[in-house]
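User: Reviewer 2 asked us to show a designed sequence for the structure in our supplementary figure. I'm pasting the structure tokens here. Could you produce the per-position amino acids so we can include them in the response letter?
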């Protein structure tokens, strides 16, 4: 049951992050795009954090053989940190004007790396759970 909770949270996080990117790519000319992008980004980060806690709980309960012993868990840790950091860099670029160009570039790069790593981590999780 904990496995399904973890997997569900992480898949929802992936779709929120993908939707946040889609908003930037296709709806940026709308007035409301930034608010929706921000909401989806922070939601993706929150869901990833909750999914990480669920994974920790699952392994601590004896389902999985130890923390960070499989590549899925190792890459998942990095991915979770990135998906939680990406919205923060986005907010910082709006608040620290003198660093806006640098922070915007970091935010974009982190977003691209995060979504790619999320897809890889989901696939690795499905392989680890022997569902693929």
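Assistant: Here is a per-position design you can include in the supplement:
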């Amino acid at each position: 049951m904990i496995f399904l909770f973890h997997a569900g949270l992480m898949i929802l996080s992936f779709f929120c992050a993908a939707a946040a990117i889609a908003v930037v790519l296709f709806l940026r000319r709308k007035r409301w795009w930034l608010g929706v992008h921000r909401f989806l980004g922070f939601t993706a980060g929150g869901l990833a954090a909750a999914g990480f806690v669920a994974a920790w709980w699952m392994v601590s309960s004896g389902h999985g053989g130890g923390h960070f012993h499989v590549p899925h868990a190792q890459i998942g840790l990095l991915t979770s940190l990135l998906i939680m950091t990406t919205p923060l860099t986005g907010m910082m670029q709006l608040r620290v004007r003198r660093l806006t160009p640098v922070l915007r570039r970091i935010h974009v790069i982190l977003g691209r790396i995060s979504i790619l790593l999320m897809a890889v981590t989901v696939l690795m999780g499905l392989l680890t759970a022997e569902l693929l």
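For the response letter, you might also mention the following. The mean pLDDT is 92. DSSP finds four helices and no strands in the chain.
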